[in-house]
Amino acid sequence: MRKVYHRIDNIAGNVIILTATDAAYGELASVTSTRGTSLAQVIRLEGDRVFLQVFAGSRGIATDAQVRFLGRGMEIPFSEHLLGRIFDGAGRPRDRGPEIRDNPVPIGGPPVNPIRRVIPRHMVRTGIPMIDIFNTLVESQKLPIFSSAGEPYNPLLARIALQAEVDIIVLGGMGLKHDDYLFFRDHLEEHGALSRSVLYIHTAAEPTVEALLVPDVSLAVAEQFALDGKRVLVLLTDMTNFADAMKEIAITMEQIPSNRGYPGDLYSQLAARYEKAVDFDGAGSITVLAVTSMPGDDVTHPVPDNTGYITEGQFYLRGGRIEPFGSLSRLKQQVNGKTRPDHRTIMNTMIQLFASYRETLEKQAMGFRMSGWDKKLLKYGKRFENEMMDLSVNLPLEKALDLGWAILADCFTPEETGIQSALIREYWPSKKDAKESSEVDSKDSPEPDSEDGGKRTPSSDAAKTKPEPRDEADDAPEPRKKSGADDEAASSGDSEERPDAHPKSENIQGEKDSKP
């Protein structure tokens, strides 16, 4: 029989301090007071002084409360009956369903032994072109979504939960507003995805310390499903709230603060959670996708800054879109060569042309006259933003690749893209096919609001900006004189290079100033 302690030396926030023997780090204890019994966990040991974190908060606990150590760490029940259920951060039912007590498993264990891992080799399809084509999500990958306040990161996670081609979704929410919790619950239920999901939700109105349990509980359950051969996708939001809860506890315990008041072990604590991502040899996999909000849109904030050193890339969410520049999936090369022969070519070509489009926008803002090539880039960039980058676009990978070809064919000639002739012959659509594909895809995708409050589609924008019929030579790149190097290149048969002599933009500001 374990000893019961009847005296608490100090209470600081949600941390209680007492003198005890034979307590272990991470051990659970029950704290009984006039308001009932609460669970607490040992978070620090200084000789015979024991610091316990009370999960339900210390309100109502007096110094004469009874403390009894349980001799075990935090555990969470695991069962197939978890699917379709919603729990709080400590694993208590939030959906008024029966409590599950089967097969308790410990949480917060070490990462999987590397010899049990295999090299990532399978793609996780999401139906979002900016992920599937340009920054492919791979099984066992750990990726953050860096976002500033006000960006639709929770709706993005909900869409991924609905569309991701995995077996099980484990959603962990930390510090959620009640409206966000209801959004996740109702959205998954209405679209039939709740039956394959488990939700562990901590709201902002609940004790802060319970936010620390959510990632560990979610990942412990995901690991058990993965050992049973399931492909599991863990969605966490928001890891900055998790770090803020750590910061609050560290300040209460009077730890020496590090950068901006966060504890010195912030990196280790984040890594311990992200490193749970794994592809088991002969079993399932765990893929981790976690929102990390950036206060003040500051990527040097300690939480996103430390996260970037742990994860295998990142997604940047800006302006309601996944930003192609800065977003990166370091494992995409493991899978995007196995999807379709044109996947990597479309990815590289479209991003290269979109970068040129951004440069053209800068020249346009500075008053440069737009050449024929610039006008093509402007047309291409608008279509790319509306039909590829918009988060409301939902397309399977193959249809998204076909749409990429249609956009290229509508805006450029094959020679201007620099794509290999073999791929051009196989995938390049005719003008008619490109137009029909554009019209079909614009009907399938939601129509963005125009500036005047009306509705418009990408195809209608293209129709409005369509130039008058004229000679094709007007828009063609200007020929340049052949040199010896050109003759050598021609003799080597390398005729598929992209033209490097596009018409130069002219600054018309000087012309205006020189007129009388």
Automatic annotation (TrEMBL):
The keyword Ion transport applies. Residues 334-427 form the ATP synthase A/B type C-terminal domain. It holds the Pfam family ATP-synt_VA_C. One of its GO terms (biological process) is proton motive force-driven plasma membrane ATP synthesis. InterPro entries: ATP-synt_VA_C, ATPase_F1/V1/A1_a/bsu_N, ATPase_F1/V1/A1_a/bsu_nucl-bd, P-loop_NTPase, V-ATPase_su_B/beta. Gene3D superfamilies: 3.40.50.12240. It comes from the Bacteria. Residues 430-446, 495-516 have a biased composition (Basic and acidic residues). Residues 430-516 are annotated as: Disordered. Residues 127-318 form the ATPase F1/V1/A1 complex alpha/beta subunit nucleotide-binding domain. GO terms for molecular function: ATP binding; proton-transporting ATP synthase activity, rotational mechanism. Keywords: ATP synthesis, Hydrogen ion transport, Ion transport, Transport. Residues 10-71 form the ATPase F1/V1/A1 complex alpha/beta subunit N-terminal domain. Belongs to the ATPase alpha/beta chains family. Produces ATP from ADP in the presence of a proton gradient across the membrane. The V-type beta chain is a regulatory subunit. This is V-type ATP synthase beta chain.
